[in-house]
Structure to design on (711 residues):
């Protein structure tokens, strides 16, 4: 008897659950259809960048300028009324974190495209996820590996410069001027290693001598134990290949140690945001490369328009180098969407490959074999006097015009011609 | 490695001691608070960061670095008093993990408040004009400002030692650390003693943050890295031992410096390797009292 009642009770309970469950599905279904339509309506761009950590300052600029590209696209009517949306995620400058966030963006948020990253290593982690899922990824930070065959895929685009181009431009400018004995202070990860290789390759033509490469961990806050060793090497040129807060602190402490008295300091990349955060003293006289400086507005109408739109959106602030990359990375993808008249991945890839654009820094295009954006490299010097405003921090002292000859050849990268 | 001269090794040793002085200055407040109150202050890095930002604020108001040297420890110490009185005091007698968790959460709150007030990006902090440049110390050039930091650390240590060892209030503090119950029975207001100790510890943290600002600039997250290093120093020196913190701080500086000379990329790891070795050989640290954590 007891058994029977239990069974009876359990059956009715199950029935009840089934009914309720079916009802819930029925009730939810119209809503779910709406939701699916809404998802189709906006074009979602995932944007993983290291908002926290040593590169946080630069990452925040990337977000700001990317939002501008989104706003311009939407104000221009979007894709036949379909608006774009930026989904910003903090990758914490950690490849594992970035891969997880990207996977979530792809799987849960159903993003159409991914743009972002600010690390040579982290972008490869993001790229691994996107290429496996067949999602276009436009990387906006420096890497050589991303152009090369093991990492490259047809979904991979690279709006940023790569270390080969950047170190090449700076090296070709500096080596003939300041001397042959070159020492390196290098962040011990992909970015630093690739920059040093770029400098050494560019230096071959000038017969430079590598007197020592001192490597430091990412996120070092004190360089006082490395600088005496570097000074003992008595170099003519010291290449400091690190980024963000590492660069700020390294330059500040190198200045304190009096390195600048005997040695010209060069950096593959001088970050605008870092220069502002560290002040003129630390960066004084330092020469380096960059992909963008707002001062280009004297030369290009596109720069002038970008600067004006950015400063209108952000209380008169000028865009920085990495900000411009955030803008360029998102704007090129959205321009390709418009040209393709679709968000279909293959159509957008074809449109990106066909794109000849001048959105913020003069003419650019994506090379067919590795999707590297062929563009100019600026060689800049930090200003410490005659500054007109808070953004007036660099002067452009040389320019490498866009030229495929400054890139490694497609064959060198492992691509079939 | 070529160019490994006697001068270089001597300079490297000196750089290590200078770096050690910064570690000592930071760890000493942590050690003081732990030794006297058995509070593991995870917000110590946040007080350090606040010290740097108070300095930034004073400079913004038109003050100079010398005013900061006095105003910053005062302001951060006052903040410490408030934190002890209203947040930590209710947790005494409830086990070591309560104040630990509280200060851990507090550090997040402080960092976030500073981000709201001053922004997430770094703020430049120039070395004061007369302390700029490098001077010849016999074996090579060394930044004048770093010499100043060594001097400042020595002054703070001396003052702290005199206060604890030579004043009657210091005697009460030391007695309170040994056996709070007896001291209380003797009619001393132990709560007040702990309040002041916490204030002194945080004031020194703020002072260290100010001194670090011209070395590395100011950013809301600046307390994070140094907190990990300071814990290594206090653990190696022995939790709660001030003499231990001094010796361990200098040792850690020298170990980092010498490792950097031969294997620069190992500099950061060497700190933790040293801690692991000390913990295996002597679990209570150099001068630690066994069982303080239990």
């Amino acid at each position: 008897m007891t058994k029977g009642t239990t069974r009876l009770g359990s059956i009715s309970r199950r029935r009840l659950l089934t009914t309720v469950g079916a009802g819930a599905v029925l009730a939810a279904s119209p809503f779910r259809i709406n939701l699916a339509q809404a998802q189709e309506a906006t074009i979602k761009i995932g944007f993983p960048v290291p908002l926290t950590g040593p590169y946080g300052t630069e990452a925040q600029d990337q977000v700001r300028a990317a939002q501008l590209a989104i706003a311009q696209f939407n104000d221009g009517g979007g894709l036949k009324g379909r608006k774009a949306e930026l989904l910003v995620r903090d990758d914490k400058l950690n490849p594992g974190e970035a891969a997880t966030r990207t996977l979530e963006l792809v799987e849960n948020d159903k993003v159409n495209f991914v743009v972002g990253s600010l690390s040579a290593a982290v972008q490869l982690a993001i790229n691994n996820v996107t290429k496996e899922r067949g999602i276009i990824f436009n990387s906006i930070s420096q890497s050589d590996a991303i152009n090369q065959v093991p990492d490259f895929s047809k979904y991979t685009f690279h709006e940023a410069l790569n270390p080969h181009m950047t170190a090449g431009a700076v090296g070709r400018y500096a080596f003939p001027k300041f001397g042959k004995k070159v020492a390196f202070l290098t962040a011990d990860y992909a970015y630093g290693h690739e920059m040093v290789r770029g400098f050494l390759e560019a230096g071959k033509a000038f017969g430079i001598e590598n007197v020592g490469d001192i490597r430091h961990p990412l996120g070092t806050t004190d360089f006082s134990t490395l600088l005496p060793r570097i000074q003992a090497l008595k170099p003519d040129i010291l290449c400091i290949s690190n980024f963000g807060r590492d660069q700020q602190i390294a330059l500040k402490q190198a200045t304190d140690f009096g390195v600048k008295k005997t040695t010209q300091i060069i950096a593959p990349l001088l970050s605008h945001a870092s220069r502002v955060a560290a002040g003129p003293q630390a960066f004084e006289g330092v020469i380096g490369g960059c992909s963008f400086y707002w001062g280009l507005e004297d030369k290009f109408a596109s720069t002038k328009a970008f600067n004006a739109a950015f400063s209108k959106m952000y209380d008169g602030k000028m865009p920085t180098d990495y900000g411009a990359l955030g803008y360029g990375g998102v704007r090129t993808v959205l321009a390709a969407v418009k040209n393709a008249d679709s968000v279909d991945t293959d159509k957008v890839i074809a449109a990106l490959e066909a794109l000849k654009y001048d959105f913020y820094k003069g003419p650019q295009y994506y090379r067919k074999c590795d999707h590297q954006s062929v563009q100019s490299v600026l060689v800049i010097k930090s200003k410490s006097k005659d500054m007109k405003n808070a953004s007036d921090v660099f002067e452009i002292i040389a320019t490498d015009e866009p030229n495929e000859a400054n890139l490694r050849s497609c064959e060198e990268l492992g691509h079939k011609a | 490695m070529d160019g490994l001269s006697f001068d270089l090794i001597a300079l490297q040793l000196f750089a290590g001691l200078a770096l050690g002085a910064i570690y000592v200055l930071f760890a000493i407040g942590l050690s003081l608070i732990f030794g006297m109150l058995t509070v593991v202050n995870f917000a110590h890095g946040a007080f350090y960061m606040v010290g740097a930002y108070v300095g930034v604020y004073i400079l913004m108001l038109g003050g100079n670095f010398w005013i900061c040297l006095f105003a910053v420890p005062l302001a951060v110490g006052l903040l410490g008093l408030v934190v002890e009185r209203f947040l930590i005091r209710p947790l005494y007698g409830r086990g070591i993990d309560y104040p630990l968790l509280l200060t851990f959460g507090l550090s997040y709150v402080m960092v976030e408040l500073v981000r709201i007030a001053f922004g997430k990006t770094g703020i430049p902090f120039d070395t004061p004009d007369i302390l700029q440049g490098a001077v010849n110390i016999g074996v090579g050039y060394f930044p004048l400002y770093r010499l100043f930091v060594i001097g400042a650390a020595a002054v703070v240590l001396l003052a702290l030692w005199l206060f604890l060892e030579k004043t009657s209030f210091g005697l009460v503090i030391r007695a309170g650390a040994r056996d709070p119950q007896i001291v209380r029975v003797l009619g001393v207001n132990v709560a007040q003693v702990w309040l002041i100790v916490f204030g002194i510890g945080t004031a020194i943290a703020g002072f260290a943050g100010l001194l670090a600002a011209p070395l590395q600039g100011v950013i809301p997250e600046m307390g994070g890295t140094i907190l990990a290093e300071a814990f290594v120093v206090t653990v190696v020196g022995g939790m709660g031992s001030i003499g231990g913190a001094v010796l361990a701080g200098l040792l850690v500086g020298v170990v980092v410096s010498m490792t950097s000379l031969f294997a620069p990329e190992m500099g950061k790891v060497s700190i933790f390797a040293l801690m692991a070795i000390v913990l295996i050989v002597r679990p209570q640290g150099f001068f630690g009292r066994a069982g303080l954590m239990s």
Summary: Confidence is low (pLDDT under 50) at residues 1-10, 30-39 of chain A. Chain A touches chain B through 39 residues (CB under 8 Å).
